[in-house]
Amino acid sequence: MALSSMTSSNPTAAGRYPAGSAAFAHRDLIALAGLAPWEILFLLDEAEQWVELNRKPHKRDDRLAGLTIINAFFENSTRTLLSFEIAGKRLGADVVNMHAAQSSVKKGETLIDTAMTLNAMRADAIVIRHQSSGAVGLIADKVDCPVLNAGDGQHEHPTQGLLDALTIRHAKGDIAGLKVTICGDILHSRVARSNIHCLTTLGAEVRVCAPPALMPADIEALKVSPFHDFNVALDGADVVMMLRLQQERMSGQFIPSPREYRHLYGLTLDRLARARPDALVMHPGPMNRGIEIDSNVADLAGRSAITRQVEMGVAIRMACLDVLTRRSRKVEGWT
Ligand code: ASP
After folding, report:
1. Which atom of ligand 1 is the closest one to the Cα of 75?
2. What is the 8-class DSSP label of residue 289?
3. Is the pTM of this model over 0.85?
4. Residue 183 to residue 175: CA distance in whole angstroms
5. Percent of the chain residues topping a pLDDT of 70
6. CB of 82 closer than 6 A to ligand 1?
7. Ligand 1: which atom is nearest the Cα of residue 189?
8. Among 127, 129, 130, 157, which is best to mutate for testing ligand 1, by the most ligand atoms less than 8 A from CB?
9. Cα–Cα distance measured from residue 47 to residue 304, given in angstroms and rounded to the nearest whole number
10. Per-residue pLDDT tens over the stretch 90-120
11. Per residue in 244-274, pLDDT tens?
């Protein structure tokens, strides 16, 4: 259902989405592809209370007290793991982190056996990062509790897409109609994929820019405009989102050299001048300063939203954990 077709016969909170669990009728959060605009808006709106709480000295709400959340990370992470842990703890849950390097995965245990083990521990939510696209969805089918995808291969990173949308909304207001340029390793980037689904669903005009070898062949099916010339892709952009080269997902040589890559696709101050004068600069991290983004751009006061993205990440993850556990907590209206 399009936003415009929501009517008064659909009682809504603020008229933006259906009431109760119909506002987000999914057990898991695996991908942003396929979500309705109001489902995304609902999660963004839910996160606003946590942005506020997180700015207070006392950052605690105990609505998840007694619940156990397992963060199972089969791939490295700094921001995502830490922010899911902080999010769960600020909501009063018991949070346990499983690092694959110290787990039985290293002893040859299959993904499904690991999933069954986590399930047997009666977690109330499991947050999973895995190097294989589709692995998180596979585990979700085997367990009894909500599963949140913290990044699966080059498929999706839904909470990143949501936190980016929240960051843009805080800086620019309505996302509909904004021109967003995403530049870098589009081919291997789950962040690009989640952002594309999220931002196009909310009505933004999304341009993607990459060298030919790092542009997915079927990119136009995602309702974005592809560019190989970064200077052209930047013209009039409201938001410029830079991506890291995902070396760990590359087999073979995709770029001639880091120096040449920076020359053609690095965000420098000069190049940023091609975007709108108030264009927002974003990067999901970790950054490779001096390659896809220059330090004086990454740290540009008033324009760089990179640390704001991290702040929004905690609020979005609190919102997702709260919303997805409402059914098991028997919150009124969540059936
Ligand atoms: N941190 C993001 C991810 O996990 C982006 C990156 O690693 O480049 O996908």
Report:
1. 4
2. B
3. yes
4. 19
5. 94
6. no
7. 9
8. 157
9. 21
10. 999 999 999 876 667 766 778 888 889 999 9
11. 998 888 877 888 788 999 999 999 999 999 9
